[in-house]
Known about the structure:
heterodimer, A: mainly beta, Alpha-Beta Plaits, two-stranded antiparallel sheet, 2 helices, 7 strands, 33% strand, B: alpha+beta, Flavocytochrome C3, Chain A, domain 1, Methane Monooxygenase Hydroxylase, Chain G, domain 1, four-stranded antiparallel sheet, 21 strands, 37% helix
Amino acid sequence: xxxxxxxEKCIGCGKCRDVCPGTLIKIDxxxxxxxxxxxDCWGCTSCVKECPVYAIRFYLGADMGGLGSRLHIEKADGLxxxxxxxxxxxxxxxxxxxxxxxxY
Amino acid sequence: xxxxxxxxxxxxxxxxxxxxxxxxxxxxxxxxxILICEKAHIKRxxxxxxxxNALNAYITEGRTPQDYVDYAKKDADGIxxxxxxxxxxxxxxSVTARLEELxxxxxxxxxxxxxxxxxxxxKINGENIKPLLAGAVxxxxxxxxxNRVNIIDxxxxxxxxxxxxxxxxxxxxxxxxxxxxxxxATGGAAGLYKPNNPGFSRHKMWYPPFxxxxxxxxxxxxxxxxxxxxxxxxxxxxxxTIAPTGTLAQGAGAKxxxxxxxxxxxxxxxxxxxxxxxxxxxxxEGRGPCYLRTxxxxxxxxxSLFKAYLNMAPSQTLKWCESGAPSKYNVEIEGTxxxxxxxxxxxGYWVDTHRATTxxxxxxxxxxxxxxxxxYVTGALAEGEIAAESAAEYIAGTIGEPIDDGEITAHIAExxxxxxxxxxxxxxxxxxxxxxxxxxxxxxxxKTNYRFNEKQLTIADMKIKQLLELSENLHAEDFQExxxxxxxxxxxxxxxxxxxxxxxxxxxxxxxxAENLDYPxxxxxxxxxxxxxxMENGEIKIILRELTEEGQRLYEHSN
Lengths: 104, 559
């Protein structure tokens, strides 16, 4: 269970670091975010939701059956777009509306 | 290291669900200066970081607060406090209304009424519940929030609290905080036992891995009375992701089945502990693995499940997307490692009806407070409200006293001892793993199917004490590592109490939660009692107390 931060995309704004409930994300000397303690990630995806340039991907560790898919969240028109990229290049998207309640 | 001294009226330790609501209440009901110290950032800290999919504690139409008390009491087989459950239950609906005012989306029917899920639950979109609470707190003029400040100890003398000591994880600062009253809202304790996924995904547990039992440990150290630590909480969860199962069971109506396809839940009973025990037993008798039966659900149901899980446990939706959807494959379930969490079971501070602990000026709310299980989110809010009202009343008649210089010097010396060394043979991580192995093997972890006997508990106690001694010599490179040392020591202190409580209750009242193989039967004559404890001269003294009367509405501390 952890996240991967794309150094190329990262703009060093620090929003992911600010919100992490485990204080696990740091900003390095060249103003890029990195996860200092990858094994200590809870998987809450708070950082993924904060990133303004969608540089953070969330994945499941192999020890919990992860198969290499990566999840990130884009915000548009007040909706959350949960985008899942599979290792074979297949991309799927689930849209949730924060103003709509869950049905279950 | 810098030292900073702060004086406030009410200090709230922990800005999670209960802590945030306590701040809202205290701000509205008093002119007090309020300070929240939060080890992370209140926007996404505590149990609700990823969100929550339902409000599990609500008095639905046609039901009464007493119905909720009866339900929680039955689930805990009697070992609850009627007064605490009732005073919580009567506030569940008003705090829900307040959440809605703050912006929480709750499902309503065409007449504008909430749609209930079963008898006690409401359906919501709780993905943003914590940012909503945090936003409301940050807007209050008389509340200050110190994020990334981890409280490491209380200041207590003559059984009265004067404030607390903390460390700024990112600014190398030692904080001395003087306060007239303190509300402890640090949550429960995860990470005591070896988790389901002990390797790379060791923190993929259900309860927040950052809830390390700090509040319990600080109270234990200063002689606060604690209750029912033997009633551990073991959650039945989706395998691997350790995601909640209530949405599948109550929302989609999925039954627990074994590998033969038989519904087994009715065989063992439907209380929380019986559902875990049944699953353990089906596996032991060769009928595992166990599942929640979802095969054949409709495309619409599946889509709703995907969304519901994204709003609280996104790893489960990701798992379904990459490993197979629930309409095609049943969802495998397993028990988690045991947690100590007063919002689900009854472990925590022994409090009076006003949520005052046995230390004067210290109030407790949420998962850290005992005697009142099945709180969930709304119950934690209700307790935050009660604790804040009590604290506001208390400070009106209290003069703040300064913290003694000697105490400050002693804490600085302790920090310097951990940070001054160049290195140590053992690391905090090693000792944490050792602790989890000990608890797993000898105090009823996953390895032993949650079962234990007295001999094993004696070994566990000896080994935990050894680890506590070893932890004295740990080395911290920076203040984050220093926090990890304190967290380890908190967990070890909680482990000692858990072991003492498990040993004290000589019966098996709750399968799996406290399954003592030396006393495998329930003993109503001997053990319809609270098992409480208090640290005296470094030893844990067990105190047995009689249950509150049926329908009792008020409990006051007497001795």
